[in-house]
Each structure stands twice: as C-alpha cells, then as structure tokens.
Design a protein that fits this description.
- With 175 residues, this protein is mainly α.
- The protein is built from eleven helices and no strands.
- Helix 1 packs antiparallel against helix 2 and helix 9 crosses helix 10.
- The protein starts with a helix and ends in a 7-residue tail after the last helix.
C-alpha cells in the first residue's frame, strides 16, 4: 500500500533512484512478513506451545466468566503440573472438555467471584488459585477425573493449594 501510494498516487513521478529504494523497501517488508509468519508456525510446533495454547484458552474462558482479565499466567508452571491430569486423548480435546465443564457449571463465574481478592471472604492460602485461569482446569479435573488430578498434584508445590481450592468449592479430594 505504501509503495503504491509513493510510486503511483503521487502528484510527481519519483526519480529512478527513489523508485529503486521504494522497491527494495517493499521487498524487505514482504520478506519480514513472510519470516514472521514462518516463526509463528514454527512456534506452534514446539512441544511447550501445546501448554501455552491451553493456558490461552483458559484465560479467554476465565475472562468471559468474570467479565475481566484474570491474573494472566506469566509462566507455564501450573499448567505443566495439571497437564499430567489429562490423558493423551484428553489433551487433544482439552478445549472441548473445558467447554463441556463450563456448560455444566453455569454459575461458576459467580462462585469464582466469591473467591476473588476484593470479596469479603477471600483467604489467600485458599483462594489464590481462584485468581488464576488454571482454576478452571483444576475444577474440571476434580469433577470428572479426580484420581488423575490427585496423582498429578501429589508431592508437588501445588498439592496444598489445589486441595484448599477444591475444598473452597465444596470438593474434597481423595487422599
């Protein structure tokens, strides 16, 4: 668009040297665009990107539930632990499983708001995970595949907070 305006839409026809520079710049921009697209595709093929996509999906659903962005994760630590609570076939259907769970729990947004820092009953050690999008995956696993969740969190830094979070949502995880 810029080269078209510079070369063909101006009132004065630019000299050859200027035309050459504009053409070279246009080529550089096209190469840049192609390389950026190639890098996006390459990034998507990285093993860790599967986790990033899952967190992005949870973040979108969390924002839709609460009407505002959550504490968007800056790392993949939580989802890395939770990912072990999903069998390979379930990982491929992650968005579908989360969507089905959200359909089953139409009041989840209201319940999550009860565990946000601005609520009167907020207790950091119990409710912190409720401020993170991954809480949706925790609650989904607690409801549908509790044993996988328990196995995934056992002896991790998340075990205590996941158990307390589930308890806050009236779910008692087995030992």
């Amino acid at each position: 668009m810029v080269s078209h305006k510079l070369l063909y839409k101006g009132l004065v026809k630019p000299p050859r040297r200027v035309v050459r520079v504009i053409n070279r710049l246009t080529a550089v921009v096209e190469i840049f665009d192609d390389e950026v697209q190639r890098m996006f595709k390459k990034r998507e093929s990285l093993p860790a990107y599967e986790l990033a996509r899952a967190v992005e999906y949870l973040d979108d659903r969390y924002e839709a539930l609460l009407g505002e962005p959550g504490g968007a994760p800056t790392d993949l630590d939580i989802i890395t632990v939770l990912w072990a609570a999903y069998e390979e076939s379930e990982r491929a259907r992650f968005a579908e499983l989360i969507g089905e769970y959200l359909d089953e729990e139409p009041d989840l947004g209201v319940r999550l708001r009860e565990h946000q820092p601005n609520s009167a009953s907020y207790v950091d050690s119990r409710d912190w995970l409720s401020t993170q999008p991954e809480v949706i995956a925790v609650l989904e696993r607690a409801k549908h595949r509790e044993s996988l969740l328990v196995d995934a969190i056992r002896d991790t830094d998340l075990e205590d907070i996941v158990r307390k979070t589930c308890s806050a949502f009236n779910i008692v995880l087995m030992d």
